[in-house]
Amino acid sequence: MTQPYAGRCYEDFTVGQLIEHPLGRTVTQTDNIWFTLLTGNTNPIHFDAHYAAHTEFGRPLVNSAFTIALVTGLSVSDMSQNAVNLGWDEVRLPHPLFEGDTVYARSEVLELRESRSRPQQGLLTFRSSGYTQTGVVVLEFKRTVLVYRRGHLPSNLSRPVMRERT
């Protein structure tokens, strides 16, 4: 039986490493409206097509907080599966994202530093970019995580062995 992908550890990263995340995600109208209303965002440009039609964009914009969450999520299996998020910096939205666009992501490792207070972990800083099916960049940010070193993953990450029914 093949083991599930367990993510990268601190030692698996090198400065300058560029990682193309494998999955893309098409954003639907439902995604945009639900996320906007769930977070209490009252800006009608995200959920009122008539209102949005009268803006310079001519149609609803995808909620930028959804865009950040989506690009972060697309990067997790490669960048922070074994980490704790410490923060986002330099968040930029150079182009709007629209319902129906498909988002892809890539990340570049900018800095690695051993933790002085947590020797079982290290600090990883990387820049992630989200871009559409046409290659237009819709989001860029730097993110810093505290990632586990190999051999120091919490034991509760081990999956239980399935037993046969008797």
Explain the overall architecture.
- With 166 residues, this protein is of the alpha+beta class.
- It has one domain: Thiol Ester Dehydrase, Chain A (Roll), CATH 3.10.129.10.
- Helices cover 19% and strands 31% of the residues.
- Strands 1, 2, 3, 4, 5 and 6 form a 6-stranded antiparallel β-sheet that branches.
- The mean pLDDT is 93.
Q: What's the architecture, going by CATH?
A: Roll
Assign a percent range to the helix content. Answer: 10-25%
Q: Describe the main β-sheet briefly.
A: 6 strands, antiparallel
Poorly predicted ranges: none
Distance between the termini: 21 Å
What global shape is seen? globular
The CATH H-level superfamily is: Hotdog Thioesterase
Number of domains: 1
Q: Can you write the helix and strand succession as a string?
A: EEHHHEEEE
Number of separate strands: 6
Oligomer: single chain
The CATH topology annotation reads as Thiol Ester Dehydrase, Chain A
Count of helical regions: 3
Please report which band the strand proportion falls in: under 5%, 5-15%, 15-25%, 25-35%, 35-45% or over 45%.
25-35%
Structural class: alpha+beta
Integer-rounded radius of gyration: 19 Å
Text of the CATH class: Alpha Beta
What's the rounded overall pLDDT mean? Answer: 93
Topology:
Elements: E1 18-20, E2 25-26, H1 29-38, H2 49-53, H3 64-79, E3 83-92, E4 102-114, E5 121-132, E6 137-148
Antiparallel strand pairs: 1-4, 2-4, 3-6, 4-5, 5-6
Please tag this protein with its features.
6 strands, Thiol Ester Dehydrase, Chain A, about 170 residues, about 30% strand, 6-stranded antiparallel sheet, alpha+beta, globular, 3 helices
